[in-house]
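pls ignore typos typing on phone
flavin-adenine dinucleotide + seq
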Amino acid sequence: MSRKVRNILISGAGIAGPTLAYWLLRRGFTPTIVEQAPSPRVGGYVIDFWGLGWEVAERMGLTPRLLRDGYRMKELRLVNDAGRPVARLDVDVFRKAAGDRFTSIHRGDLASSIYSLIDGKVDTIFGDSILSIQQDPDGVDVNFRNSASRRFDLVVGADGLHSNVRALVFGDEGRYERYLGYYAASFNAPGYPIRDKGVYVSYALPGRQLGRYALRDGRTTFFFVFIGPPDRNGGRVGNSEHRAALQRAFGGAGWECPAILDAMNSSDDLFFDAVSQVRMDHWSVGRVVLLGDACFCPSLLAGQGSALAMAGAYLLAAELEAADGDYTVAFQRYQSRFKPFIDEKQKGALRSAGWFAPRTRLGVRLRNQVTRFMNAPLISTWMVKRLFADHFDLSPYPSGSLPAEITDKSYPEGVQAGKT
Ligand SMILES: Cc1cc2nc3c(=O)[nH]c(=O)nc-3n(C[C@H](O)[C@H](O)[C@H](O)COP(=O)(O)OP(=O)(O)OC[C@H]3O[C@@H](n4cnc5c(N)ncnc54)[C@H](O)[C@@H]3O)c2cc1C
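k done
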């Protein structure tokens, strides 16, 4: 039985998959990606990006591009039914507390930036999906929905909250998905007339929150969170049912809700899902391992899903290299080192649930009050250093040298591949 590995199949070209492919390539492995979408998926809303994810992005030479494509958000503004501000948060206070290693970026721009580093360098099969996985002591046979079957040394499931690899190898989603009581949705629309450049404007009712942020290409990104009972499909119902659910939750509400629901009805990139965590005792079975939302989704309440997915990818590749390709050692170290940190992040996300969508009028008022307090530099510094800090040390994991495949001139302008 050979434990040394080279050829690694990654299911999913979201955030974790391409990050892992980049680091595997850089550490001398040969990754292949299979992605069910016909091209890289670039939907989603504006996310805050900092901490461990920032550190990994720096090691990939990505931060100049993330700063270029990201937004220097000025203010979080909470408004009432009439659109009048009831609380403001100066985002600069937080940015300073994070040492300026912070940006707000559209998830699609983050995904594209990462993918651009491996585009043309990693064999990527778009529009396909794994049908079956058969392991034996020396490798893994993979059958695809459309492509010919192939054999790999390892398979990584980086295919998100509703992971296909997890379902095929680890069992039914219901065993691992913990629904947190909310649904989230987002979409992007051109031509929304009210812009408030640099300001995230947010409106809350008990159990519901709706926000908007103006993108620089003339579009506006919208983000909804609302309380709802668990759905037996885990929130993955058809698009028309998503729209109907949002209409039920926000129809008849104040502020700009009617105009935003109109824009939603004519949008074609609605993202809708349950707000869930994924909790698993074991992240690997034999030659198959999970990564990112597939095994440790912290939920959007953690505000760090993408960053943690990138950090996990970095660590998994580093452990595979450190173990000289001995996957049993690498998988064991990857989980034992990263899981305690993830467990803390998941607990922290549960604590912030009340802030995201307070359930009562009193809760909404309390949230507004707390938001006002957060402008005090002492409080925001404490929050950044204590509540949001990533207590995980990447320094034992050096980036390694750059192989020829990823030192060519094909990187986007202003981006230096992998300069650390
Ligand atoms: C299009 C999109 C929009 C999103 N928008 C938001 C958002 O607005 N707010 C939010 O909080 N989170 C959003 N997320 C989730 C968030 O981005 C994740 O927490 C984070 O990206 C974790 O990274 P990941 O790579 O583990 O998972 P993901 O980024 O979810 O990537 C998983 C990838 O696997 C692919 N995939 C799924 N099933 C299969 C299969 N059977 N075969 C092959 N490939 C498969 C998916 O198409 C996707 O590209 C979004 C995810 C996606 C895919």
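Confidence is low (pLDDT under 50) at residues 408-420. The first helix runs from residue 16 to 26. more later
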